[in-house]
Amino acid sequence: HHHEMSADMASMPDHSHASSSAIACEAIVEEDTDAPVKTYELVAARTVLSLGNGKTKAARTFNGTSPGPELRVTEGDKVVVTLKNKDIEDGVTLHWHGINVPCSQDGVAGVSQDAVAPGEQFTYTFVADEPGTYWYHSHQMSSIQARMGLLGSIVVLPKSAGAETEIMDVNAIYQELDSTPLLNGSAEGLTLDGHPGDLVRLRLTNAGNGTLRFRVDGASFQVAAMDGHELNEPGPLRDVEVPVGAGQRYDLLFRIPDSHKVVVRSDSLKNLPITIGEGAVPPESGGKERFSFVDYGSPLAEGQDRKPAADRGFELKLGQSLFVNTINGRSFHEIPPMNVKEGETVRIAIVNEGGGDHPFHIHGHTFRVWSKNGVPLTGSPVYLDTLLTTKGDRFEVTLTADNPGLWMAHCHNLEHASMGMSMMLNYE
Ligand code: C2O
Ligand code: CU
């Protein structure tokens, strides 16, 4: 059957005034668990922010800051977050980007809940069972609210800390507050202490709308994880640009050398370097080779790594012209959902037909990438929740339909999403 719904799209002007909506998710079943509980309160409010460069900006914040508080939990924790809306007129929600929460906790206004009105609150509960770098953002009129500041990081640390305790763990979340680029809320980049020999895990989150290409000057590095998922045997890289699409996370691993600091920068972020350590500034790398996960790292042991037979197949052609963004030539409300049954293996071809980069995000599921432009991946298995596509790309991914509900799938250039490049994944 066909769901009539209104889903968090800025192109739907009457949405915030809807008195009720078709909520498509079943209520969460609270399981008895003795997992440690991590409790947070996030208060959404209008705030005037200072940006660290003497300037101020009208923003929307969580607990008075943008990004909001960095939530750090441990694998297996039960996370309980109460969202309070102080005075955001359009209402607000929390979406846990990349964390496969139950549908009712997914925070999509008009799909999994109504937006939380001023003076009201909503409590999200989920178990953080996959370690990694994730983020949260409002999913009510997201293209506007994320740009105004309603976002933050959530890091799930692995349970077996062990050696990890010796790692300097740095989070850097990029956003465009209105149109001002910020890293961790600063318009001047990040400067961090560090000593020769320190091992650094740099968690890069792109919470903006465009693709960022980062370089690491002063050290060779590894791409340890993408979208929170560790890569198998990631090799050393040097003079290579890492393209981080909007919504994606890359964890980079490097050691601070004796002679100088490490500077991580992006040409599109000239004034926002991440500088770690002491000593001389390293020379800028000349190389412009682009990181590709297609042949990076190593496959798992033989036999464990075969593409599963699919029960269903879909092809999504992402297209963009001046005023309309489409999937298979149609915009949001006209796009038939991907209908799946619980337990099925679903194959999806994601094709970029131009207009720009389209980082495609699927809610509630992690998908595995099998091929790019017909060429199978030969390196590490790659699991993502957001796939960066550039013009002409064709990727084949699979996902396991193991999280029942109604889920959004959309371009994470949120302006493209709001102009139509959004659809649903629907459990029949
Ligand atoms: Cu981070 Cu529906 O998105
Ligand atoms: Cu797009």
Give an overview in words.
- With 428 residues, this protein is mainly β.
- It has three domains: 15-157, Immunoglobulin-like (Sandwich); 162-291, Immunoglobulin-like; 312-427, Immunoglobulin-like.
- It is built from two helices and 32 strands.
- It starts with 36 loop residues before the first strand and ends with a strand.
Task: Outline the fold blueprint.
Layout: E1 37-50, E2 56-62, E3 71-74, E4 78-85, E5 95-97, E6 121-127, E7 132-137, H1 142-145, E8 151-157, E9 167-177, E10 180-183, E11 190-192, E12 199-206, E13 212-217, E14 221-226, E15 229-230, E16 240-244, E17 249-255, E18 262-266, E19 274-276, E20 289-290, E21 312-320, E22 325-327, E23 338-340, E24 345-352, E25 358-362, E26 367-372, E27 375-376, E28 382-384, E29 386-389, E30 394-400, E31 406-411, H2 414-418, E32 422-427
Parallel strand pairs: 1-4, 3-8, 9-12, 11-19, 16-20, 21-24, 23-32
Antiparallel strand pairs: 1-2, 4-6, 5-7, 7-8, 9-10, 12-17, 13-16, 13-18, 14-15, 14-17, 18-19, 21-22, 24-30, 25-29, 25-31, 26-27, 26-28, 26-30, 31-32
